[in-house]
Every structure is written in C-alpha cells, then in structure tokens.
Amino acid sequence: MADLDSVLGCLDLNLDRSVERLKDLLRIPSISTDPAYAADCRRCADWLAGDLDAIGFKARVADSAGHPMVIAHHDGAGPNAPHVLFYGHYDVQPVDPVELWDTDPFEPTVRQMPDGTSRITGRGSADDKGQLMTFVEACRAYIAETGSLPCRVTIFLEGEEESGSPSLLPFMDANKAELSADIALVCDTNMWDRETPAISTGLRGLVGEEVTIRCADKDLHSGYFGGAATNPIHVLSRILADLHDADGRVTLPGFYDGVPELPEEVREIWKGLNFDEAAFLGQAGLTTSSGEKGRSVLEQTWSRPTAEVNGISGGYTGKGFKTVIAAEASAKVSFRLVFDQDPAKIRESFRRFVSERLPTDAKVEFHEHGGSPAIQLPFDSPALTAAREALSDEWPKAAVMIGMGGSIPVVGEFKRRLGMGSLLIGFGLGDDRIHSPNEKYEMTSFAKGQRSWARVLDALGRKGV
Ligand code: BES
C-alpha cells in the first residue's frame, strides 16, 4: 500500500508535466486513413517508443505492411508476476470539417470551463492518445517511485485502428510470442458518467463497405439527356433507403441471424444504470430516437445491430450549380454487429441486396473496409473483479459494467489468435466528441485515469489475473 500511495502522490505532483507530454503527442497529426500523413504516423510511433525507452521499457518501432507498431516490454516484478499486454492506438481520425473547430485540431489547448472543470482539446485527445497516456503515465510514476512495475508489462500501440486495422492480423500472427500475455488491458472506452468508472463487457463488431454505381460512360447534360439517362445517384439513394423498413429494422436477408434477445440478467444490470435517454440524445442536439421501434436507446446502441450510411458522393457538389447527370455515385456504408452475427455473411448479403436492385445499364463495384465480429466478455473474471474494486477506490462512485456501441476490432483477435481475454477500461466521456470537431478529454479523465491504472496494476499484481 505504501508503494501505491507514493505512486499516486508522484502522479499528482507531476500532472503538469504529463499534460505537456500529452500536448507534444497531440501535436503530431497521425491521421492513419490519409496517406499524406504517413510520415506523421511514423513520427508518432517514434515519439512513443522514445518515451517508453526513457522510462525503462525496452521499446521498438516495428514495421508492418501499413503504419508502424510500437512494442515495449518491462519485466516488472519478474517471471512469476502476472503478464499484462496494454493495447492502445496512436492514430487519429481526420479532422474534417476543419472549419467547425474552435481551435487548431493539432495545437492542443487546456481550457478552463465556467463550471470549474478543465479539458484538453485536440484531435486524438480522447481517442486515443489521452487515454493511452494515462497508462504510460501510471507506468512512469510506478517505475520512478518503486524502480519497477507490479506486473510484467508489454505495451502494444498500433497506428491503424481508425482505419480498420488492415495490417494488424498478419502482424499479430508474425509476432505471436512477443504479444502473448495473460490478459490484455485496453484503454479506448468510456466511463459511465463523470463520477462513475466503467468496465465495458461488450463491443459491437463492424463491417465497412464502399459501393460505387456507374451508369453512363461520362457525366451528361441533364437537360439533353434528362428523362432518358439512368441517374446513378437515384439508383444508389433508392437502394440505400431500402436498407431500413418503417420500423427501423434492417431489411438485409439474414441480417438478424445470430442476434438473440438480451439475456434477462444483462437487461437487469442495464436497468440498474438508470440511463437518461433524453440527456443522451440531448448532448447531440437530438430529441427522439429514430432507431428500431420498441427498443430502449441502450439496446439500440449496445445490443442491436445497425446499418449506417457514413458518406455519400456523386455529381456536382461544389459552389454554385451545375446541371449534370453524373456518371457515378458512391457511398460508404457500415454495419455494427452484435452477438454472433458473421461479418462475412453480412457483407455478402449487402452485396447481393445491392446487385439485385440494379436497373439495366447500372454497374456496381464494391470495396471492402474491414470487418470484425462483436465481442462479449465475461462479467465475473478474477481480473475484472480486482479491477472493479481498484476503480471504485479511485472514483466517487463504484465501477459499473456497461456495453459499448463502438468497435475495437483487436479485442476479438486477442482472444482468437493469442487466446487472451481483455479488460476494457477507459476514461472517456459521452460528450468528448470523438471523431467530431472539437474533440476533448477532461482533465479529471486524464488525472484520475492515471491514478486508476496505478491502482489496477497494483491490484492485478497482488491478486493475479
Ligand atoms: N474509441 C473508439 C471506440 C469507442 C467508441 C469507444 C465510442 C467508446 C465510445 C475506437 O477508437 C473507434 O472509434 N473505433 C472505430 C473502429 C473502426 C474504425 C474499425 C469505430 O468504432 O468506429
């Protein structure tokens, strides 16, 4: 306990410095999906490996087919101590529309708010640089105060999470031994609310598809050809509109195969959370859920699958006006999956659904953007119980177990490829605006997140995993 107390004291004392380090990291525009930022992704990996080396890890930047990975090891309390693998991602989402940011997305600022809270703004502040640095800072303080760590620790940071982790699987297969541990710790999820820490026991899966429909062999004058020429924007939008019925259910054949009703005990746990649907929608400027009829918002976002159009393009979208029938139109469509839905089957069903609806002269092309099944983790593992207690010691309210509507594809692969369970602990808040303009991370998340990891590492070291 004396050790833990001094580590917590060290974290408090050095908070300002940890904020400066986070700012340095946030200044690197590591946007993985845009090849223009490839050098920045590498710079970000170098920065992290350098920092981990400096605090006593053996760190390396490892090349992959895409952006590099960072792997770092610390022997901690020796070969008999529990071995944890910490996973995070250093890549970030694009910043568009950049004009909606109040500050430069890559010039982080700490802002005091009228209610007395403070926050750090910038792309990646919450997703996931601020979160991953909570763990790194906990390790830094532990090593500084005690000379070691209570667990053997491997840190694994990837740079392609926000673009579907295309290089991850071959990399994991090629580095199995180096990445294997007793359990994976992932810091890329949310708290329940500002006072209540959470362990996520479910994540939705994801299928990403880009669909392009081509009709005429060139853009056409919409008066000369209009009325006769097939318009790919019309074809595409009709097909996309057909994806949902009037009750908000997805119409793809077989879509709900492997989607059971929520088990009663889980329904009870969720009921106990007293979720405020109006407040949840209100933080996005909305008033009414438009999802599947007859389902609560928690169900709609945690345990029901979705089909969403994430982007659509075609024709003339510049300033002014142009009377044109475009030659092609395309859309990016994603499906969030739950329980046992099979990503390959969903993709196939979508492709068939589109192909069957094409009129004469319309041709389609599909482009795959990743796929991962949903994750369900046990509610009662020893590691989860130990972590729950540790988190409850740090925050005003006891830790709760929640679902999570987002996806972290690596978690399933840890189980499948490395036989390793995961513990999903994160300090993000629902209003952090991840993937949106003005992303921020609360200073309490950053400060108490660091302290939380110190406590969790201490608990896992003492109690095992
Ligand atoms: N941190 C998120 C997952 C998340 C979302 C946690 C919402 C808590 C609340 C993660 O980095 C993420 O955004 N994942 C992507 C994965 C995809 C691009 C393969 C997602 O869910 O869209």
Q: Could you characterize the architecture of this molecule?
A:
The protein is of the alpha+beta class and 465 residues long. It folds into two domains: 2-203 and 374-463, Aminopeptidase, CATH 3.40.630.10; 205-259 and 305-372, Alpha-Beta Plaits, CATH 3.30.70. The protein is 34% helix and 22% strand. It has 14 helices and 18 strands. Strands 1, 2, 3, 6, 7, 8, 15, 16 and 17 form a nine-stranded mixed beta sheet that branches. A four-stranded antiparallel beta sheet has the order 11-13-9-14, covered by helices on one side. The mean pLDDT is 96. The structure holds ligand BES. The site of ligand BES has 16 residues, from loops.
Kindly estimate the percentage of residues that lie in beta strands according to DSSP: 15-25%
Ends: how far apart? 19 Å
CATH architecture descriptor text of the largest domain:
3-Layer(aba) Sandwich
Low-confidence stretches: none
Mean pLDDT: 96
Write the CATH fold name of the largest domain: Aminopeptidase
Work out the helix count.
14
Summarize the structure.
The protein is 34% helix and 22% strand.
Key attributes of the depicted protein:
465 residues; alpha+beta; 34% helix; Aminopeptidase; binds ligand BES; Alpha-Beta Plaits; 2 domains
Map the helices and strands.
Elements: H1 2-13, H2 15-26, H3 38-54, E1 58-62, E2 69-74, E3 83-89, E4 109-112, E5 118-121, H4 129-146, E6 152-158, H5 168-174, H6 176-179, E7 183-186, E8 198-203, E9 205-214, E10 220-221, H7 232-241, H8 264-271, H9 277-282, H10 297-303, E11 306-314, E12 324-325, E13 328-337, H11 343-356, E14 363-372, E15 375-376, H12 382-394, E16 400-404, H13 410-418, E17 421-426, E18 440-442, H14 443-463
Parallel strand pairs: 3-6, 3-7, 7-17, 8-16
Antiparallel strand pairs: 1-2, 2-6, 4-5, 5-18, 8-15, 8-17, 9-13, 9-14, 10-12, 11-13
The protein binds ligand BES.
Ligand BES binds at residues 127-128, 161-162, 164, 188-190, 206, 370, 404, 406-409, 428.
